[in-house]
Amino acid sequence: MNLAHVQTFLVVIETGNLNKAADRLNVTQSTVTARINALEHLLGQRLLTRNKSGAVVTATGAKFLKHAQILVQVWKQVRHDTSLPKGFTDVCNFGCTDVLWGGAGALMLNILREHHKSMAIKVENGNENDIRSWIANDMVDLAISYDPPYASGCTIMPLFEDILIEVSTVPRELMRWDPLYVYVDYGEDFRRWHVEKYPVDDTAVVTFSDVSFALEHIISQGGAAYVPMRLVKDALEERTLFEVDDAPRFHRVAYLSFHKNRTQKWSWLPAAIESFRERFVGSPAS
Fold this sequence. Notes:
Layout (H helix, E strand, L loop, with lengths): L2 H13 L2 H8 L3 H15 L4 E4 L2 E4 L1 H24 L7 E8 H18 L3 E8 L1 H9 L5 E4 L8 E15 L12 E4 L3 H10 L8 E3 L2 H11 L2 E5 H10 L3 E2 L6 E10 H4 L5 H11 L3 E2 L2
Parallel strand pairs: 3-4, 3-5, 7-8, 7-9
Antiparallel strand pairs: 1-2, 5-11, 6-9, 6-10, 6-11, 6-12
Helix pairs in contact: 1-2, 1-3, 1-4, 2-3, 5-11
Organism: Mesorhizobium denitrificans
Protein name: LysR family transcriptional regulator
GO molecular function: DNA-binding transcription factor activity; transcription cis-regulatory region binding
């Protein structure tokens, strides 16, 4: 039995709708349908009745529900117990988007280690879609991202606000399109905003998911990119980089998401979060 199919069944029950379940799991609606069909085929019973208003659990599905919940809980415990390295008392699966690793993710990792030295930490880096999927499927215990994953049993809190500014390796004013412009992917909200502010057909010469790579590229090759102001304050003061005159700024709030069931025994976590807020160089989130 595929555990992902069981987890998908539980999310469909919770949301009451295959489309909403797909959004929660960050997969397509056809994937949700395929998983449910595979599960029903394996069991030889219809678990859900689909209609225009959503999905309703059948009598058999209701009986399977409690077993599905036990299966998922047992798997969580197995994953925790078997992943515990020798000499450690606990494991933390920490996720962070690529664009937030520089500064924020690295600092959070160090603080987690400081506050629980006997805890092993596994770091997962990816894009915003990866983080949402990992949280929804219990693959990470806590994560930092711009687009918070609204998953069941997940606590979400704002950490800080990033101000994204366009910087260039040469002083210049805003132009219709810079042929050396490098695009950094900060998620769906930024993509929509970017299209609105720069409605051109031109394509960026290079696209990065990691802002540190983008910075290295434009510094060595020349060009421009949108980057968090906190990462380039020194470069702006030293005039090795320049904010583009009249270029619009974009504000993004970074969030910390964590599973309450997994972290409720971590009495040290609130102090770790507060330590991060005190030490992080950036704007506090409202």
